[in-house]
Structures are given as C-alpha cells and as structure tokens.
Automatic annotation (TrEMBL):
Transmembrane segments: none annotated. Keywords: ATP-binding, Nucleotide-binding, Transport. Signal peptide: none annotated. This is ATP-binding cassette domain-containing protein. InterPro entries: AAA+_ATPase, ABC_AA/LPS_Transport, ABC_transporter-like_ATP-bd, BCA_ABC_TP_C, P-loop_NTPase. GO terms for cellular component: plasma membrane. It comes from Halonatronomonas betaini. One of its GO terms (molecular function) is ATP hydrolysis activity.
Amino acid sequence: MPDNEDYILQTINLSKSFGGIKAVNNVSFKVKPKENLGVIGPNGAGKTTMFNLITGYIPIDSGEIIFENNNIEKLPARKRSLTGISRTFQTSQLFLDLTIKENLFLAANKNQNTYNIFIPWNKDKEKIEKSIEIAKEIGLYDNFNVKAKELPHGKRRLLGIGQALISDSKLLMLDEPAAGLPAQERNTISKLIKKITKELTLIIIDHDMDIIFDLADRVLVMNQGEILAIGDPEEIQNNEEVQRIYVGGE
Ligand SMILES: Nc1ncnc2c1ncn2[C@@H]1O[C@H](COP(=O)(O)OP(=O)(O)OP(=O)(O)O)[C@@H](O)[C@H]1O
C-alpha cells in the first residue's frame, strides 16, 4: 500500500445531505500529484456538490478531506484556496464590466483579500507580469484591455480558467469548463487544459465524454451520490454498470 505522501488529495467517507437527499454519500477516493481525474455521472449524481465540499463552498456533514497530508475539511474556502486548490464554476464568476487585465489582476490578488478591488493596477509589478503571462497562456493577450462582457462565451470560459490558474494552484478543479460551447471551442479548451495541467493536478467534471476520455488518466463515475466506478478510461468505457446508467441518458 502506498503512503499518504503519494497522494495530493484524499477524501474519506465524505457525505452531504440536503433534506432527505444524500447528494454525496460516503465518497472516498485518492488523487496522485499531477494526475488528471475526470468526474462523470448523470445529472444530480453529486459531482458539483463534491467539488463544493472539497473547495469549502459548502460545509460537509461528515468525513475527511486531506490535501497534501493536512486535513482541510474545517478550513474556510479562502484558506483552502491559499493552500493551492482552485476551481472554476459552472456559471461564470467574472467581473463583466472589468477588462481581462483587471479580472486576472484581481484574481492574482485574492491571497490578500478575496478579490480586493482597491489594489491599484500598476502598483504590483510581479502580479502584472503574472497577469500578462496567464493572458498569453490562455490565448487572450490580444484582448487584454477588452471588457469581459464583450467576450464571446468561449473566451469567457478561458478567462475563468485563467483566473483559477493565476494563484499558483497545485490542484485545479474545473466544473464543466466546455459546457454549452460549440465543438471547435470545446476542442480549444480541451487543448488548453492539456497544456496547462502538465505540472498540475486536475479534477474535471464534464458531460462531454470526448473531453474526459482525452484528458483523464483515470475516471471517477458518480451515481446517486456514490462512486459507481473508478478506473482508467478504458476500464470505465467497458464497465457494464457505467454503460447501464448512460443508456438513454446524456
Ligand atoms: N443547495 C442545494 N440544496 C438542495 N439540494 C441540492 C443543493 N445542491 C445540490 N442539491 C441536490 O443534490 C443532488 C446532487 O446535485 P449536484 O448538483 O451535486 O449533481 P451534479 O452531478 O453536479 O449534477 P449536474 O450534472 O446536473 O450538474 C441533486 O439531487 C440536487 O438537486
């Protein structure tokens, strides 16, 4: 059995109910450093709730979350993000009236105070350079001074990923980054994710199996709050129980 040190993230019997619904029920899994873990499952399976529990956006009912050998389940969301966990949301969290430059700069400053809007642009050379570097990485440097609201949907998603990336995250958690985008843009996002996660650990939720099977080293399948299966992409594609829950589905 490998030591805990071999894992960047571990959940142990993680559970959360909403009223009578067991949204996440005794979920235990481990993620290795730099691994890409895909998370799939039908609507309502508990995928986003699991993200919310790991990132601290909602409190757990019971269980443990261990990140780099430290229990983090009692830390508030902001402190978890400071340990190196960052995420995107299904719906955009951008400041639409601000430019790409400003959105990235604010995200870079979240260590001081979650999105401190009073930090003047031009005062922090290091963070400006980081914002430029990330804008180039996500392919948006040409739009650096364009307001987020003027960007098409696909570019907004890229900016959301840029915001998550800018804070030196070790574990990047992406919740349906390509949902609702046309095939070509999904492809662009998928390529970008592949490029940026070479040195990072990734957990990605998506309904697009092409994206998941292309990016993931392992795939975790959730159903009705529980883990139905976890394994390498081929194993999961051939798993009869997994096939059954998708029959007539997505
Ligand atoms: N804040 C909440 N209050 C009440 N019920 C909730 C809440 N959040 C989630 N649920 C319920 O918990 C269950 C799991 O929902 P969750 O959003 O985690 O599923 P999901 O797998 O992410 O689904 P989708 O693929 O549609 O995003 C569902 O039955 C959902 O209705």
